[in-house]
Amino acid sequence: MGTRRAFLRKAGLSAVGTVAGITLLPSPPDATDPTGTVEAAEPPSAVAEWTDEPITDEDDAPIGRYHYEPTGDGFRATALFNVVVLPEADGDRGLETVMSVLEVEGWIRSPEEYTRFAWDRQTESYVRQQATAAQAYYGVNGRRHVRCWSFEGVVSMQAHEDSAARPTHGVPSYQRGRDTIEAIFDGAGWRVSPDAIDLANAKEPDHDGVATVIAEDP
Amino acid sequence: MSTETDSHRSLEVRAAVSAVLRHPLLGLEPRRTALAGAYLLGLIAMFLASYVGARVPISDSLRTPLTSGLDTLSLLVIALVTATMLLAPLCYAVWNGGPLLSFGLPLTPVAVGDIMAGAYVLDLDLAVALTVGASAAALALLATDVRQVGSVRFWRADTHEDRLVFVTAIATVAAVGIGRFVGTAPSYVLEWYAPMGVVWLVTAAVLGSYWLNWARSAWHTLPTGAP
Fold first, then answer.
1. How far apart are CA B22 and CA B101, in angstroms?
2. Where are the beta strands (DSSP E) in chain B?
3. Stretch B165-172: mean pLDDT, rounded?
C-alpha cells in the first residue's frame, strides 16, 4: 500500500512539474510565410527621383548601396542594400516603426552579429548599424537577418539569409531575405513595390542589383 | 571574531557548492560537473563581452581594430554556442551523466541571449536547444546506468525511478514545445529544423526502452494474491 501511495505521489508531482514546464514555454512566432505573392504597388512619389536612373554613387541619394567593413586602409563593401523603407516618421522614430513590424513577427533585436558601417552623405561619415534584427539570436540552424540605417528619413535595409552556423554563418541568399521582408511588410499593410530602385549593386549568389521599396502610407 | 564568522561562512558556502556539485541530476563526478559549470560561466562571460562591445561607442581612431576585435568575438561566440547546442550536451551526458545539466547546457546560451534581447519566443534556436537538451538528458540516464552496471545492459541497473520520471517530464515538455513550433513554422524553417528529427529518435529509443523495462518489471512484481 505504501509503495503504491509513494508511486501515485511521484506521478502526481511529475505531472504538475510537466504542466508547469509547458506553461513556462514561450509561444512560437506567428511568422509570415514568404512563399505567397505580394501585391505590387506603384512606388511612392517620395522616391520618384530615384526610380528612373540607376544609383551608382553613395552620394546620389540618402539610400545606401553597400554596407562596409573598416580595413587598414579604408572601407571594404561587404553586402548590398536590397530594401528601402519609407516610414511616416523621420529619424529614430521612423526606424523604430520599421523594426516594430519585425518584432511582431517574433524577430529578435540586436542579435549576435558583425559590426558594419554605411555612408551618411549629410555628415560625410561612416555610421555604425543603427538597428538590426534576426529570426534567432545566434541562428545555429539558419536565420534571416537585417541591418538598417536611417538617413534623411529613408531607411536602407540589408536583408539576407544566414546559413546554419557550421561553425560560422555564410550568406546563401540575399533574395530570400528580401522576399521575407516583402511578405512581412505586405502582411502588415505596408505598400510594397518590388524592383523599384536600381542600386547597381548586383552580387553573388542571387542579388540582381535592384531594391524593393516599402512605404508606410496607406 | 569577524574573521571567525567569515571563515565559518566560507566553509558553509564551500559545503553548499560541494553538495550541489554532488547532486546526481547534475553529474556523476563533482570535478567534471564543476568543469562543465566553469565552461558555461566562461561562455556567458564571452557572450557579455560581445554584448557590451556591440553597445560601446566606437571612435574613428579605433574603428578598424575595435570592429575587427568585436567581429572576432561574435564569430567565436556563434561558433562556441553552436558547439554548445549541438555537441556539448550529448558529449557531457555520456561523459558525466547528469540529466539536468545535460538538458541545461544547450538552453543556457539561448536563454542568456533571449533574456538580454528581451525576447520570449520559441524560435529555431530554442527549438534546437530543447531537442538536443531532451536527448542529452535521456543519454545521461543511460550513461549513468551503463556505468553502474559496467556493461551496456542498462536494464540490469538499479535505475532510480525518480530519475526516469524526471527525464520523461523534461522530454515531454520539450516535445510539446516542438509540436507547437512545427505546427506554426513556415516550410523553410521546418527544413532548417528537419535534421534535428534524428535526435528525437535517440530520445524516443532510450525513454521507450526504459519504460518498457519498467512495465515488464512492474508486471513481474505484481502481487498475485496467492500466499
1. 12
2. none
3. 97
Q: Which one of B78, B123, B162 has the shortest CB-CB distance to A106?
A: B123
A191-198/A210-215 β-pairing: antiparallel
Give yes or no for a contact between A216 and A88, defined as CB atoms under 8 angstroms apart.
yes
Q: List all residues of chain A from 34 to 63 with a beta carbon under 8 Å from chain B.
A: 34-35
Question: Under 8 Å CB-to-CB from B176, ≥6 apart: which residues?
Answer: A22, A25
pTM: 0.95
- Residue A92 CA to residue A150 CA, distance in Å, equals 7
Verify whether the Cβ–Cβ distance B195 to A141 is below 8 Å. yes
A133-151 b/e (C-beta count within 10 Å ≥ 16 → b): bbbbbbbbbbbbbbbbbbb
Residue bearing cell 574613428:
B60
Helix (H) or strand (E) holding B176: helix B161-184
Three-class DSSP category at A130: coil
**What is the three-class DSSP state of B49?**
helix
The set of cell numbers assigned to B117 is 534581447
Beta strands at A74-80 and A191-198: parallel, antiparallel or unpaired:
unpaired
pLDDT score at A2: 64
Count the helix, strand and coil residues of chain A and give each as a percent rounded to the nearest 5.
25, 30, 45
pLDDT of residue B8: 87
Residue of B nearest to A28 (CA): B122
The residues pairing with B178 across neighbouring beta strands, listed in sequence order, are none
Does pLDDT of B221 surpass 80? Answer: no
Confidence at residue B223, expressed as pLDDT on a 0 to 100 scale = 64
Picking from B76, B173, B178, B198 by the largest number of A CB atoms within 10 A of its own CB, the best residue to mutate is B173
Q: Using CA atoms in the order B58, B60, B64, B66, what is the torsion angle rounded to 10 degrees?
A: -20
Q: Where are the domains of chain A?
A: 36-215
What average pLDDT does the segment B25-39 reach?
A: 97
Whether the CA torsion A43, A49, A51, A55 is positive or negative: it is negative
Query: Does residue A117 contact residue A70 with C-beta atoms inside 8 Å?
Result: yes
CA B90, B92, B95, B98 dihedral sign is: negative
Within an 8 Å CB–CB cutoff, is residue B176 touching chain A? yes
* Dist. CA B64–CA A167, nearest whole Å: 24
DSSP A44: P
Q: Coil, helix or strand for B96?
A: helix
Residue A1: half-sphere exposure toward Cβ, Cα within 13 Å: 0
